[in-house]
Amino acid sequence: MSGHTVTFDGREIPALPGQTVAAALWSAGITAWRTTRWGGEPRGVFCGIGVCFDCLVEINGRANQRACLVPAAPGDVIRSGDEDVA
Amino acid sequence: MTPEAPPRTLAVIGAGPAGLAAALAAAQRDLRVTLIDSAPQAGGQFYRRPAAALGARRPQALHHQWRTWERLRDGLAEQIAAGGITHLTEHHVWFVERVEGEGGFAVQALIGPEQQESVALRADAVLLATGGYEKVLPFPGWTLPGVVTAGGAQAMLKGGLVLPGRTAVVAGTGPLLMPVAAGLAGAGAEVAALVESADPKAFARHAATLAAHPDKLAEAARYGVQLLRHRVRLTPRHTVVQAHGKASLEAVTIAALDPAGRVRPGTERRFRCDTLAVGHGMLPHTDLAEGLGCRVDGLNVAVDAEQRTDVPGVWAAGEATGIGGAALSLAEGHIAGRSAAARLRGRTPDPRAWAAAAKSRTKAREFAAAISPVYAPPAHWAEQLRDDTLVCRCEEVPASAVREAVDELGATDARSVKLLTRAGMGWCQGRMCSAAVAGLAGCEERSARRPFARPVPLGVLAQTPDEDEPTPSS
Ligand SMILES: Cc1cc2nc3c(=O)[nH]c(=O)nc-3n(C[C@H](O)[C@H](O)[C@H](O)COP(=O)(O)OP(=O)(O)OC[C@H]3O[C@@H](n4cnc5c(N)ncnc54)[C@H](O)[C@@H]3O)c2cc1C
Ligand code: FES
Predict the structure, then answer these.
(1) What's the CA gap between B149 and B140, in Å, rounded?
(2) How close A80 gets to chain B, by Cα (Å)?
(3) Would the pLDDT of B2 be above 60?
């Protein structure tokens, strides 16, 4: 199985085809990728199946994507960030 | 109806065990089925598999009942080839409505991972097989990265082939904890403890029911053997009292429970770990059913013996109608599919035709009813919450605010707590906090009526005719 790479806040990380953004980030040892609006607390995956919205992340300029659902495509530009007030 | 009549159509929402069994049963009886799921592949939560491109050599190593899955998978492929089933992946259904005048239903789905564009599908009938999600009660530290739901850890492992962390504690209550601990240990994690709040002695009171289910006992025994092989300690009658760490999880403290379900002071033990997989049972997805006006009984979509809801043309099967495991979902799905096939042709089905499925449904429901009181979370879990422990993760509402709403402002139900504190108003629409809020308010846990099953972009709503309710969170 051949992998590809994506970037997370400018850092290149490996990803496997079909792996979600969350799985790629976890594999690279990154477990938090946003901070909460009021408390500034770090958050990453919680439910793992698209229900809790804790894993929100910016992917290719689109804010508020669920990292546990979206597959990591080659060259994806992933950014952490403070929660957008939706 | 004449035999030349055009094929009747059924939209099955959810491609887990229930939805797959239903779609196959209906398609084999000449309904034209559209099987719709938000995931990129069929299988649901139970038969979750790594993406084909990940090239896992033995995905079955993480599963039991692989042969049942192969049967469903091959049946699906055959029906797709024959034109009986159209499988729509990555379609997130946010609303289903009856089409006035013309009859039938419109299924609204956001497509692709982006979920910016919505499509509408028409069908003569719908079958809801949307499954459930995990319930987690809060405790200090539960928002730290590294704390995940037990099912979430399993999903990451099965679907992404990622081992969440190196050292894990698995905790909470319910039949899901054992397979999750076994899965993590088998994949190479060190499982420092398997912490179950239930009392094994409580099972003795249900010995007769349990003995009637040798398959379930054998399944538990199989996990037991796997856990033993990996030297995983089962710690019953214990609960997690706190997760520790700064930027992410570093350790958890567990403590023993007394018979009343209170923490015994002085019994605290600390384990170093980078992952805590925690769960307190499952909750059914009921939003689509509620949007259609189906009766919900407590937390479950209410159905009759044929798996029909009280709204004509709407069936429901699987965990959406009550939590009971994959075998129950399969049986219910099969019955629902056959019933729909007959009813859509104007025939009254003969239940004797699905006697075997009905029998396994009865047995599985009996079993679920026997074990669910045993796997109750500790009665006094709320005493562990500190004032600053968040109850609502999305809106960051601490326990103190909920307590104030209840004790000082007199809120006695989740809705009032929500209006007073914003708990349940965020992205997840209360899915993560409703059980905790109900517990703190001392009211019964009920399904929260949400306008839509998914957050919907405003642009989509603007384009969708006949929509008058604004979206809450987009
Ligand atoms: C995260 C998780 C992990 C689990 N792991 C295990 C395990 O390892 N072992 C075990 O015995 N049991 C496990 N369970 C329990 C398991 O869910 C059930 O036993 C079984 O899968 C229920 O089958 P089902 O068909 O009713 O629902 P599911 O298998 O949950 O299938 C429901 C399907 O509906 C889809 N869906 C839901 N809502 C929508 C919507 N609005 N639009 C489009 N699609 C939608 C979902 O994507 C899903 O594929 C797990 C549960 C969860 C939540
Ligand atoms: S982890 Fe819950 S939505 Fe992604």
Answers:
(1) 15
(2) 14
(3) no
Tell me the ipTM for this assembly.
Answer: 0.94
Helix %, strand %, coil % of chain B (to 5): 35, 20, 45
Beta strands per DSSP E along B6-154:
9-13, 32-36, 85-88, 91-98, 105-111, 117-123, 125-128, 132-134, 147-149
Q: How far is CA B18 from CA A47, B320, B331, B372, B392, in A?
A: 21, 10, 7, 20, 31
**What kind and span of H or E run contains B403?**
helix B399-407
Rounded to the nearest 5 degrees, what angle is found at the Cα of B299, between the Cα atoms of B200 and B312?
135
Among A28-42, B12-26, B207-221, name the one with the lowest average pLDDT.
B207-221
Q: Is the pLDDT at B240 greater than 50, yes or no?
A: yes
Token pair listed for B87: 């499988």
- Of B308, B312, B348, nearest to B332 (Cα)? B308
Q: What digits encode the pLDDT tens for the residues A30-67?
A: 999 999 999 999 999 999 999 999 999 999 999 999 99
- Chain B residues touching residue A31 (CB < 8 angstroms): 145-146, 165, 248
Distance CA B173, CA A47 (A): 16
- Give the chain A residue whose CA is nearest to the CA of B390: A39
Average pLDDT, chain B: 90
pTM score of the predicted model? 0.92
Is residue A77 over pLDDT 50?
A: yes
For an interface test with B, the pick among A16, A49, A64 (most B C-beta atoms closer than 10 Å) comes out as A49
Q: Which residues of B touch A6 (CB under 8 A)?
A: none
Check if A47 has its Cβ closer than 6 Å to any atom of ligand 2: yes
What one-character-per-residue DSSP string does B157-226 give?
A: HHHH-----SEEEEEESSTTHHHHHHHHHHTT-EEEEEEE-S-HHHHHTTHHHHHT-HHHHHHHHHHHHH
